Amino acid sequence: MSKRTGALVSAAITLLIFTVVPLMAPQYLPPSYIETLTRTGIDVPSFVNQLAIMGVAVAALTLVKGFVAPSSIIYLLAALASSGLTFAFTVVTLSFGRLEELGNLGLTTMAMEVQGSVNAITLDFRFFVQLTALTVALRMVEAVFAYFEARKEVKVPETPSAPAIAADI
Amino acid sequence: MIGLLILITQIASLAAFGLSIYSIYGVLSSTFIGGLDFEMDFDEATDQGSLRLEVAPQNLGYLDAGVTLGLKLLDGDGVSVASESTSVMLAPGGSETISLVLEISREDYERIALEGESYLELFVGLRTLFDLIGISDTITIPQGVQG
């Protein structure tokens, strides 16, 4: 499979998992689930749209990486942006798309009223955000190393060898 | 080398997330299954009222889970009249019955009864994955709703 075909397949899978599935999922959930989620302050359509937009962005970046040379600065920027989006995706998912909770990086509080009782739920998933941050940092370092490695490989054939220089003279 | 480290981190992260969610779901569902029963009594001999709550959480997961249960009685102004809490550590497959008893003096008992407004606050906290992740639920029930 060529690099471009691989990128097309990878982008299609990304689009399917992170855009198509979230957009279609609410249709298959019982309305009572959606109602419960809404009562806890989760805006389901907005949450789904956030995931879908990030899915489209990641798929687009995957395509870019498949169609430009690894030695290109665009490739490096796409790789770094893709890693950054992975982190954003984790934070948004663990915050259930609630913008006011994004800054808490995995510590999410929700409240809902049921038959006069107030139910306040706090989820502490900060460890997973920290783990994702570590993974993303490693992926970024790997992308930078891969970029410089590719640049080195591009430069090597361009450098004329000693006998060739002698022949030119 | 970095690629391998990334792969290991991602697999470990996914496994930890799955195991943690499974433990949390198991303990919480066993805690709340069948609803919560509060028993309120007034003992004339000791001149004290008592409010009892009993739950039996069970850890169906594969990780240790720390469960904290708290019960608080608040008056109409939101001031705590009595509170009690306890914590237990449940090993995988383990179960324990937790009883909480709030002792309320006659004075407070009568005051709350006269005011006609009070709140019962129930706290259920759960931490797992070596205390790294957790979930807590604070339920505030106005008097007259509980039961």
Topology:
The complex is a heterodimer of chains A (169) and B (147).
Chain A: H1 3-28, H2 31-39, H3 44-67, H4 73-94, E1 107-114, E2 117-124, H5 126-158, H6 162-168
Antiparallel strand pairs in A: 1-2
Chain B: H1 2-32, E1 38-43, E2 48-55, E3 65-75, E4 80-90, E5 98-105, H2 106-115, E6 118-128, E7 133-142
Antiparallel strand pairs in B: 1-2, 2-5, 3-4, 3-6, 6-7
Shape of chain A from CA axes?
elongated
Distance between the termini of chain A: 44 Å
* Envelope shape of chain B: elongated
| Biggest sheet statistics of chain A | 2 strands, antiparallel
Largest sheet of chain B: 4 strands, antiparallel
The number of E-state strands of chain B comes to 7
The ordered string of helix (H) and strand (E) elements of chain B is: HEEEEEHEE
The CATH class label of chain B is Mainly Beta
Oligomer: heterodimer
Radius of gyration of chain B: 20 Å
Indicate the CATH architecture of chain B: Sandwich
Order of helices and strands of chain A: HHHHEEHH
What count of domains describes the coordinates of chain A? 1
Keywords, separated by commas or semicolons:
heterodimer; A: 169 residues; mainly alpha; two-stranded antiparallel sheet; 72% helix; elongated; B: 147 residues; alpha+beta; Immunoglobulin-like; 4-stranded antiparallel β-sheet; 3-stranded antiparallel β-sheet; 7 strands
Describe this structure in words.
The complex is a heterodimer of chains A (169) and B (147). Chain A starts with a helix and ends with a helix. In chain A, a hairpin with a 2-residue loop joins strand 1 and strand 2. Chain A is 72% helix and 9% strand. Chain A is built from 6 helices and 2 strands. With 169 residues, chain A is mainly alpha-helical. In chain A, helix 4 (73-94) packs antiparallel against helix 5. Chain A has helices at residues 3-28, 31-39, 44-67, 73-94, 126-158, 162-168, and strands spanning 107-114, 117-124. The model of chain A has no long low-confidence stretch (mean pLDDT 89). Chain A has a two-stranded antiparallel ribbon with strand order 1-2. By secondary structure, chain B is of the alpha+beta class. Chain B has one domain (2-142): Immunoglobulins (Immunoglobulin-like). Helix content of chain B is 28%, strand content 44%. Chain B has helices spanning 2-32, 106-115; strands at 38-43, 48-55, 65-75, 80-90, 98-105, 118-128, 133-142. A 4-stranded antiparallel β-sheet of chain B has the order 4-3-6-7. The longest helix of chain B has 31 residues, at 2-32. Chain B starts with a helix and ends in a 5-residue tail after the last strand. The model of chain B has no long low-confidence stretch (mean pLDDT 87).
